[in-house]
Design brief:
By secondary structure, the chain is an all-alpha fold. It has a domain at 28-65. Helix content is 61%, strand content 0%. The protein has helices at residues 11-14, 17-21, 29-63, 65-71.
Length: 84
């Protein structure tokens, strides 16, 4: 995953009195530090979720006789299933 953060120079805010009049302020560096930290936390969470899904899918495949049949080249659509 690639995440970009666009950081603007504060000059366009601080040098334009109209921006100050409307309440625009320079963004403090702490804002960007917190944003980067949150992105890192989300990325780790996403990575963990993907790893967990892959691991569980593989575990369930090992338990499934149907997966073994697919691995042996048996077309599951060709099997006549019965109701129990």
């Amino acid at each position: 995953m690639i995440v970009g953060v666009h950081i603007r120079h504060g000059m366009d805010i601080s040098m334009n009195s109209r921006n100050r009049k409307h309440g625009h302020v320079d963004t403090p560096i702490e804002y960007y530090r917190r944003a980067i930290e949150q992105i890192q936390n989300v990325y780790e969470s996403v990575k963990h979720t993907v790893d967990l899904c892959v691991r569980e899918t593989n575990r369930l495949r090992e338990l499934s006789p149907l997966w073994e049949m697919v691995q042996e080249g048996i077309d599951l659509k060709s099997i006549q299933w019965t109701q129990h």
